[in-house]
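Hey, I'm writing a tutorial for new members on how sequence and structure tokens pair up, and I'd like a real worked example in the thread rather than a made-up one. If someone can provide the structure for the chain below, I'll link this post from the tutorial.
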Amino acid sequence: MEELKKEEKLRELIKSYKRVAVAFSSGVDSTYLLKVASEELPGNVIAVTASSCSFPKRELEEAKAFCNMNQIPHVIVESEELEIEGFRQNPKNRCYLCKHELFEKILQIAEQNGVHAVLEASNMDDNGDYRPGLVAVKELGIKSPLREAGFYKEEIRRRSKELGLSTWNKQSFACLASRFVYGETIDEEKLAMVDKAEQLLLDLGFHQLRVRIHDRLARIEVDPEEFYKLIEEPTRTKIYDAFQEYGFTYITLDLKGYRTGSMNETLNFEELQRGKVC
């Protein structure tokens, strides 16, 4: 099976690094990567998770729980993106600014712990998309073994299921700053609004979702097959009332449904090319 061959390649790559630090967000990809690394390099793996106002508390707690359960040393680094010069203004290279600062901190932690390589969990689905953060990854010499082994997201999910990882069907996640239209100021209040809004939808049973913010307008993205759940009563009114309480004035449903990187749809061809990885 092709996926098994890819996993064999992944395991060989990881073993060649001898001792690693894994950037760990508790998402589907980084959980799989960390699990395989811990199996191939027992006692020679540390997980590093960034704590900030753009990273929901639920994700941080899941990261802690996974490392505790698997007895993996876990370092939590404070990485307050809002303190990075230019980040609040949400420029089109925002992700580059964030990733560069974060991985510089992880590299320092790696050096302090005698680690030979820092790993991150991007996959083949990220290739060719607008991912300026991966430009920073390349510049800093961070390893991307899932991409090097040729893994796509759905393959990672299937291998995660085979390994018994509960994250195999977890919804895809990106930092809350990705919910803002480029050029709109990012602040603690609006990050909290988005966090509470998405948590409510998760609590109501929606699976894959985003709440994009346009000033005080919320644009809800869910899978089209879940549209009916969103507009049924009493769910529709519960969402509307709660979102208004969080600070939104208008609450809308995006008729195209959930998709990754919908804020990138405003970028022109040249801008997209500058942020692509291949």
